[in-house]
Structures
1.
Amino acid sequence: MKEGEIFDVVVVGGGPVGLATAYEVAKTGSKVIVLEQNNFFNHAGSSNDLARMFRTMYTEDFMADLAKESMSLWDDLERESSTSLRWMSGLLNFGDKDFGENSPEGTLLDPIKHLERLQMAYKKLTVEEIEKRYPFKDLPANWVGIYAPDNGVINVQLLLRTLLSLAKDYGAETKQNTQVKEIRLSESDSNIWEVHTIRHEKDPVVFKAKKIVIASGAYVNHVLKPSYGISLDLCIWEMVANYFNCNAGPNGTIFPSMWFQFAPANENKRSQLFYGFPTLPWGPPNVVRIAVDAASNRIKDPKDRKTSVVNPDDIHDTQEFIKKHIVGVDSTVPAFTLSCLQTNVFDNMFVLDYVPEEYLRGGPKDSVVVFTAGWAMKFVPLLGKALADMALHGKSEYARREFSMTRKGDKDPNTVSCTYTYFRS
């Protein structure tokens, strides 16, 4: 960085969304820098794992539309990088057809109308067909399944490396171990933001920019509160992922695709939303990831994370599910476990919006863009494009009202709750 240099955009957060944003900004020839508080490809946020789902089955019509739109953007990214970032093995959703309205994944059958509207392939399966194709057993006879082939597994670590490489190839600057402490207006120019940072935990460095993109995930309030006096009310899940050993060999355990089970909570009110991945071509052999789509540890701030403790209840729930319903997977001891931070707001949707003008302390309207929350890995190329367009052009077709920072839920806005998005000075 040259002394006095002013960037067109500073991106705060070097995860997949931040890197995708930098890549899109740099492609236009604009000057952009990414600031990551840890090293790149770290385990402190949401991208700590080998795989994430790319799926198109959504209950909400607008999310189904965005999923379809993102498919072509993934194709573009793979062509640009000459890299296969997804394994399109398909997705099986199955379970109780009457369950799921208030679950994070929506309902089981509602996506069908959107698949048909968008002319996307799917196939209904009976329990007998599911148990013939997948190593499941003893599923309730009245359950049903939907298989959609236009879904797949994202290679998370390869995606991160690819986005960083592409962004730098187009001229983006990147700084790791650079923690943003505060963003404030320049005293000499009210159209310029100063990003005050500490590098390597000791060296103060100031970066200047016309526009700011805050894409720091669960850490978003660490930037918003000192800079603009506001916080989003977040419910951050410490999501546990378990990998279990499975039978090897030509007659071993084979899951032909990703899968997700829809079922109501058990008598102890423990979630029965389970999901799994097949053995990954880029992962260790003869292990499969199976986990519950819930979290016992829920926190308000990443500093409260129990980094050395994986919740045993979440692991136990998964082990019991495997014992009852899966053949050929050893449930006794996981091969390995890990956790990541899943950031949520009251409706499980994104926050994709500008910081409202009244909180900018005299700064230019629509000059600070925020993204956080939601289940976003499958939308990374789309979100990168959206944030770049919002920063450079003042708008994006993807910045829907459902993602507004100030949208209201059905609770008292003065109540501090994990289920309400609100501002506080």
2.
Amino acid sequence: MALVLHSGAGNKNAFKALIAAEYCGVKVDLVKDFQMGVSNKTPQFLKMNPLGKVPVLETPDGAIFESNAIARHVTKLKADNPLYGSSLIEYSRIEQWMDFAATEIDAGLARWLYPRLGFGIPFNAAMEEFAINYFKRSLGALNTHLANNTYLVGQSVTLADIVMTCNLYMGFARIMTKAFTSEFPHVERYFWTMVNQPNFKKVIGEVKQAEAVPAVQSQKKAPAKEQAKPKEAKPKEVKKEAPPKAAEAEEEEAPKPKPKNPLDLLPPSKMILDEWKRLYSNTKTNFREVAIKGFWDMYDPEGYSLWFCEYKYNEENTVSFVTMNKVGGFLQRMDLARKYAFGKMLVIGENPPFKVKGLWLFRGQEIPQFVIDECYDMELYEWTKVDISDEVQKERVNAMIEDQEPFEGEPLLDAKCFK
């Protein structure tokens, strides 16, 4: 008996086993004329998977469900398979990234996409914002890893790449527009490299990136279900009750107002952050006289606070481009604070280990709690509030805004701005 995969032709979870089969030279037949909602409800299918979910792999030894388990089974049918690496540590890292693809990428994407499509949890604007920020955090971690790696593990395609790419596929095809993915250039490069590999392309075909975020779908019940209620004795009463029920349903489905960020509730500040950012960006000459002076003229110590930060593990910064990518990833993950912050990050030194130091301007008197909660990089730095009454600290602020070189006696390897 040949291996038979029960699933629709466009199911990204079915792609995993089919792509693995192409790499392994294993024959897997996709069942023909599979109809979701029909084929998966038959007694024969429910014997293979009582939940009626797809995909399911039918083998001579019995059925297997769960897409990653199916992909593992297909891969292990070939001895010494490079899809599982060449050592125990590579095998473990492949498993690691497969778990990451399931718990971070697939789950994170589902929290964002499915409510918009009307699946599962009803759409809620505040929850969507949380879901997007959570998903960006996961993509940021993946982006950082891929900054220095063509593949997830080793120097060739592994099962981890197959699973990760298939989980990213739904996002790129349905909701992750170019404007969104441009924040994660290494993830972009990785995804398009993978889907254009011959074995991927043979299964998935041409992939087109989503051009727009899908509109929120109505989650109203079908009219047939409403009509299934027992008829009222008096027709007039039915007519009177129907409109309020419809109105109530619409009210329940309407997204709740987006909760205000606590920083928006602070007393108004005389400092307009966007005006400072424009001044910084537009000042090309006489930077000290124009931009630095303008900053202190605008600065509101009651509405904003300044913070120095220094990376806790500078001894690890032994490779220049890795260190710079580390800082770049941090700034990407700080995007959630763009409305409330301005930052400068310096990579310092001519020879390794390189030092990473920064200056941040935040709305309010403390580092915003939502930034600490959502951006895991924050705990990798020591944070010190600037005392602007101290002229030495104030001059250090000036030097960091200006990218002064040398900085504290050392040359700058790189300087990045968050604005």
